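Appendix B. Raw example, untouched.
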Amino acid sequence: MALIVAVMVIGACSSDEEEAAAPAPAATTAPAPTATTVAMASGFEEEDSRFTGGKYGGTFKIVGSGGLKSFDPLWTTASGTGQVADTILEGLIATRVDYGKGPQTVDSWEASSDLLTWTMTIRDGLTFHDGTALTSADVVGTLNRQRNRGVALRLVWGEFGPESFSDYIKAGTDTTFTMNLKSPTAFAMDAISNQQGFAPRVVHKAWQDTPVEESGAGKPVGHGPFQFKAWTPGAFWSAERFVDYVPSEHATDGTSGAQHAYFDEVEWRQIDDQTTRVAALQVGEVDYVMEFPAELLDRLRRDEGVQFIDNPPYRLIGHFNHTLPPFNNAEARQAYVMAYENAKALQLATGDDAFWRLCPSLIRCGTTWESEAGSKDRYHARNYEGAIQKLKDAGLYGHKIVLTDPTDRQPAHAAATVSREVLTDIGFDVDFQVMDWATQSAVRADPDLWNIFHTWGGSGTPLSAMTYSEYQYEGYVNLYQDVTGKQREIFSRWVRAQNEDELRAIIEEFQAFLYEDAIMLIIGEFFSQQAASSAVGGLYSGPGGTLPANKYFQ
């Protein structure tokens, strides 16, 4: 079995990365620093223009999460693609260590007195890796491509913005653009932040003009501290320091503020066998492993040359294709949910009862927002008899479905294995398609090719839950249809909540509706750690803590 970790933003397949509500089992762990200690640890003294001496130098070799099929994070939230975005591209508003918003491409912002016009200023001197200047037109082009996928971007536009997107987001000077609203909202800046599904990472003109249903062609051209170097499919891809990168003048705080490329190169290696990954770490062939088998954890803990980084709990889930039979019918979705073996899937995903817990909550268990609303007789009910009868009554007993199984990602593989058993037992004809994670990411992008797939993510705050794409009408990737319109009505009130009591009541209402309409399968939560060579400095648990920028060999 495997102990698995998803990397940040946009995550294995979700943008939801928040504070850890429950610690992973005890280990030698790099603690999350304060904003001040992050700045001190990363050494923000004036850089040597030749990038030599001190913390500079070396190739940081990482075994990432999953394979790579696309470089375009505006097309997919696959974790391998997210690693490209985290290394090469930059967003507009980044995430501080305390999970607040901080400057990245946008250096500053200001609201008009009526809170209807928000003026953003991008930082001076930005260029893409091909040498062309980055201007507000590139920001507007990126946002325009994401207008129907960026979850908060779309939500704020739909609820508070003008009818036309061109009136909603407008370029001003080369370094300014505006967001224009019809009514004020406290969520205005969330619309362009990295804390949402399909966060708008600024892309080059060619990708701005690519239809959102297609992956951008060619290599990624960003404006981050590292630029693309090479890719050998199935083996590795690499990036090198972008010598013309202009760091923010703000102090580093998580992924916001100054970001520095101390390494000469970063190499993301694909090693599908997880035991081989650990061996590579211990003999020094790689410096950092994001996923490894649970049975090797004790061995790693005895190795003084290894450090561990805790991750927040992740929620194992199943997504339905809401546009194809049988799961365009709520009765079919409800039958599957009420029969599912949640505990069995979680134990198989981790291999250790200490690394998982049942959790029916919309927002992470262990937080003040934990709830069981709507889950009675639906979550971990294992009601096979009721599920079979429901399918027969709906005329769906014996229907054929396509279930994908990404065998190189243990949590999803475990959930799919249990799904195959449950779906077969309640009467479905299951086409069980075995593949790797990268292939599943490509398959799920085509709604004609699948009925159910499994992934994981995490929602630790009301904002992260509200901006989760798959909860929303026509959201990527499940294309939820919201037949009754109730989801949209609830979210319209959610985004306008005036106080915590009102917000809590709305969240409870939506969670109950999530179970009633069986929007998705919530399986439960699992815990995980990453492992790295002790020679790597600057690693910590939290926003930016495991990304290549600001890390170095010590």
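End of appendix B.
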